[in-house]
Amino acid sequence: MPLAMNAPIIALSIILILASLVLTLAILIHKSRGGGMSDLFGGGMSTAFGGSSIAERNLDRITVVVGIVWLACIVALLLLWKGVS
Question: What is the DSSP letter of 32?
Fold first, then answer.
């Protein structure tokens, strides 16, 4: 594989790993709406911090943006790997 094709694949792979971690954390931080995974990590704490609807909306936006970045990295890696073989 040429070095020119290797660099974008490595860069996208690193971005994908970081986006995966951020997306996982953002999903787990969301306010509990009925016994989801966020209850495992301090369900009582969400009531103390859940009063701000602006914070929840911002978290929703961050989650959507990171999800789009994650999906774009997956598609870009697929196209790069398809072009390599």
Answer: P
